[in-house]
Amino acid sequence: MVENLYSEIQREVAARGCSTDREGVTGERTANMTMKSLRTAWYFFAEKVADLPDCPVRRITNTKAWFVENEREDQPIFLYIQMSINRKNHKNVCVFNGLSS
Q1: What is the DSSP string of 3-60?
Q2: CA-CA distance, 92 to 38, in Å (whole number)?
Q3: 3-class state of residue 93 by DSSP
Q4: Contact between 42 and 52 (Cβ < 8 Å)
Q5: Secondary structure letter of residue 67 according to DSSP
Q6: Mean pLDDT score of the chain, rounded to an integer?
Q7: Which pTM value belongs to this model?
Q8: Residues 6+ apart with CB under 8 A from 19
């Protein structure tokens, strides 16, 4: 059942992308992120609800059915900044991105 939903999400997003002339929209990333979000919520509530069954997303993991995601071309600019800064300036990068304590 979860595999059907997973594939349906991918197909629907891909169809919407084609209908709006958005190149490169395959729906694979959306399907992956949807299932990862479901898995996260499932594990959170599994700690609170004793009789919750096993996470259905495990089926995708066990069958190795995850879609392969290519690197995004639209990476946020701060990732490029972080990659281009050497180790001496690492603290400045963390402060710039709000990662410092």
Answers
A1: HHHHHHHHHHHHHHHHHTT-TT--SHHHHHHHHHHHHHHHHHHHTT-TT----TTHHH
A2: 35
A3: helix
A4: yes
A5: P
A6: 76
A7: 0.63
A8: none
